[in-house]
Amino acid sequence: MKASTRKLILPGTIVALIIATVILAPVLPLQDTRGMDIPHRFAGPSAAHWLGQDEFGRDVLSRLIWGGRASLFIAVGSAVLAAIAGTALGLLGGYFRGAVELFTVRAAEIILCLPPLLLALLVVTILGAGTWPLILALTILYTPNYARVVYAATQQVRGLDFVTAQRAMGTHPLKILVRTILPNVLPPLLVQMSLVVASAMVIESGLSFLGLGVVPPTPSWGLMIRAARGAMEVAPLLLVWPSLALAGTILTFNLLCDRLQSALDPRAVTAGGALWLRPRSREAKKPVTPVAAPAEAPLLEISDMSIAVHDMELVRRVSLTVRPGETVALVGESGSGKTLTGLAMTGLLPDTLRVTGGSAVYTTRDGTAVDLAKLDEEGIRKLRGDEISMVFQDAAASLNPVLRIGDQLGEAIQAHHQISGEALQKRILDLLRHVGIPDPERRHRAYPHELSGGQRQRAMIALAVANNPRLLIADEPTTALDPTIQAQILQLFAQLKKDTPGMGMIFVTHDLAVVAEIADRVTVMYAGEVVEEGPVAEVFARPRHPYTAALISSVPESGAERLTAIPGTVPSPRNMPTGCRFAPRCGFATAECESRSPKAEHPAADRVTRCFRWENVT
Amino acid sequence: MLRYIAFRSLVALFLVWVVVTIVFLLLHLIPGDPAELLLSTGNVAADPQAVAALREQMGLNAPLWQQYLDHMAGVLTGDLGASFRDGAPVIEQIALRLPRTLEVILAASLIATGIGVPLGTYAAIRADGKADAVISFFASASLSTPVFVVGSVVILIFAQELKWLPAGGFVPFSEDPVEHFKLLLMPAGTVALSLLAVITRMSRASVLEVLQRDYVRTARAKGLSRAPILRRHVVRNALIPVLTVLGLEMGTLIGGTVLVEFVFNWPGLSGYLVSAVDARDYPEVVGIVMTISVLFVFLNLVVDVVNAMLDPRISLVR
Amino acid sequence: MTDANAPLVEARTLGRNFPTRHGLLGRAQDVWAVRDVSLTVAKGETVGIVGESGCGKSTLGRMMMGLDSPTKGSMSFDGRDLSSLSSAEMRKLSRRMQMVFQDPFGSLDPRRTIGAQIADGLRTHNIVPGSEVKAEVARLLEQVGLPTSAAERRPHEFSGGQRQRIAVARALSTRPDFIVADEPVSALDVSIQAQVVNLLMDLRRDLDLAMLFISHDLHVVRHLCNRIVVMYLGRIVEEGPAEKVFGTPSHPYTRALLAATPSLHPRDPSEGDKVLKGELPSPANPPSGCPFRTRCPLAEEACAKGVPPLSPVGDGWRAACIKAAPVAEGVPA
Lengths: 618, 318, 333
What we know:
Chain C: Belongs to the ABC transporter superfamily. Chain A has 618 residues and is α/β, with parallel strands linked by helices. Chain A contains 22 helices and twelve strands.
């Protein structure tokens, strides 16, 4: 059972208990709710009357249970009725739209123009107090809520391909509504239902409290509180019991609603918060004592670095070297660990992930060597954006939508330099011009959504190069772009390389053709491991790992009649093969491959492959 | 931007018209004769002749459409008619009582936002920790406790047992400012408690969501330190949905302070409505409902406009 | 094979308009997603549609499936005009046209088993008797290379490539004559892409299907299609046999698209300046005259005069450019 499902047990059990109690009220050995006992009015708890007696000497416990019965009947009854009406309206309006939408959802929404309590008041005044007028009032009140929720969910689901597929298949629209759409809008409906029960109880008890709801002598929590207020000085406990019962029941339903939401729609609830924001909670990493780097040191040397979530290894013993001025492509399919490796270099791994081993030694501008994997948050923050910076894939999401481009750029510069006013302004405009954004004098005042996809990616690159970084990490920076725009951005990267000869670059991508265009060296990753490494031209001309070879021949560029497809799928981190991780899909695999993990081999001085049979590959 | 506001105002006006019409029709189409109701005392039936005279005097004999037109004409000139009960102009009572209700709501909103936003943000940063659990439980509990329960218990504690504050009532500010605020404290605090819970929960959820956004990662990638990231990127973006919710909640409260006014004897607009509804005083009910819905619709309009100002993406959509 | 030349699907001067209004009082503005497109697909033929985002290729695909109705022009399938059909007739005809979608995670209902989803088509159109549905589902799964046990499982138990095979099996269940595949491999990893492309090639050969293959990946389209249609801002700019269009493209946009596509064998760096300048114009506000002229390296005054018609360049090969002429270049074959 998932943790989110387990959390449902507590509120679920309490709700079940409450409902069982009120349903069983007629058969429980309770005292008569109307049996007066004036001599013992306001008597405290006793063996016969566990919770005491009220202002007429009636038994408080039995009145409490019968009162709960009335409240829950009204709340659940109206929640169910409103659910039926609202779901029908929402489904029809959301699926057919147009005029149907106007007469269903939009018409229902007029009710939302009235404050809820006021509407209930109106209906009750017109029809008189009592249980059924209350149910009607609450049903009218909550129908638009359901209609809205179901409408939104339907709209979302109806756009999905599997609904279109049903239409394409010639299925009747009503059948699509009932068989395909309804089950998929149920989760938000359930959540809404528990919310409405709680909310209906609040309004029911409020009206009863005002004397406009349940009619005496029928017991009700609202009425009990109203009566107890008059006797507050004599018997304060009488106020406490119904208040506790009411608040407790509503609390339980609200809790159930919250937990249902997280169980049914895990994406809607983002857990975890942000460890980096908590000053001292990060495990105390010792500040690294900088050491002078050797003269010929590379810019970045990752050796045997592993990254894990809990105890599941996602990246295993990755090694990678970047020299000044060199572009290294990190290539692999989804789940290969290439993006995580890039993120780890800037300390931006998601909170649940940790670097569990190895080192990533970076040589700073002033010639000292620091291990990025061991730096604390403050230490790595100073390098981020200044010496090491990053370009992300989705520029639309990676730029703050409510800040102007120029301000976001200025902020990046000011994070590392004391500069402001005109000097800062000039630097911003220079940067925008440098990355090829036309008319920077006007464009720096634009918000991200006012730029086209290509220009947003240019702005993203401007952010990254704002402080002339020495190491630029680009994570799939052209993947979401159209071919002609992708070509422009690749050209921009080539230009940047030429303009800043000392800058090293890690280019993370899944596209082999992009690697061929931009990189000097390539590192191929598969299932969290580096499988091959070397100069791009050499690796592509003569791959020394079966995976690289298969990857190259699966690109439909060769002109072959049939593409070489790699059979099977990438293994999941939960059950990695024990030996070579590619063995189950490999045409060269032997018994040895399946039992033992291959060591790094060096087919040439500057090449690495992890394969027992590399000599047989091509 | 101006076009956006103009468009939204038109929609708002239309909604007000729809609401006023619905309320008018509801009250006039239901069974039950107000004249008879007014004249009957206890179980004694009213004199039919007196009823007929009163009906004539109240204009109830005119065709419905004429009553409706008269009513709408009155609304446009600011004349909401005279109360059936005492003949006093309805607009005067509303003008007297509305500010008192608004005062409670405003005081409560200030308290709730001032405490709720920082509290929710803190809970989000410490998500799944002890502080978060305490704050979240407190928020759920106060959200689940109806205002009249809170009000009654607060009176029990602060007025009854501790005797720090008077149990309820109202003194105009001009007469005794200190006493005025002492009396305001409990109703406003009671309303603030549930509003605080809503704002805290919303802020927490909103901050948590923004923290997962890519642009926060970008802000970190720039090398910004915690304070500016939190201020400029996290809280600022997270506030947009929080303000929306605050506006909607305030709208709901305009008609929803009935219970608080009842509990604390606060002579506001909502209490007036309950007695008007009780007496079937048509002009009063229609006048109050209209005032409340106008405010409600207007508040929604303000929320939309503020949103459009905070989020530059919105004005483009329309 | 006498009727092999008669088109199975025919679009005539198809147009689709999405009017957008700015505010309640604003003037409605015409946004043409597809404009003046005429296209045929014959039995056994695979037509590829390429173009960048916003060029209208997906809208065109949906119209050719009858999922969207055209604002202008008409669509006919096997000689029947789709707009003349009642909704019941349309549902019946839809047996013969099926679709495969891009997103392998959105194209299957997460709440129902694979078998039930494939059986939907069989039951709706009574393809096989009720007692044989199970066996038929198993046969379809085997046809796309999945174990028959897959029928009992739900979509989340499968990887992206497997889901895409399931989607293909579902499309095949009604024994269609025509399949529209809208970016069916774009969301897949390279090694899995090849599996699905191979599967589609086999099916086309074995079942003699007509196929409309929509993609932005020029390499895949070239590999799979007999005929290629290049679209820009809702219009066809070039159309013809695959080896001609990509071998010796005659429209400057086709040339630019080919030049922009990265290749395992990088071009001479001096070709860098062949990269197109500028951004795609908004479909709401297309340039006057030739839609491509704002970015075209060959543009001259005459291009602003009017939209150039699709004129023949060779046998079955048309281009919409006043300077259209085959130029030998493009991706190395």
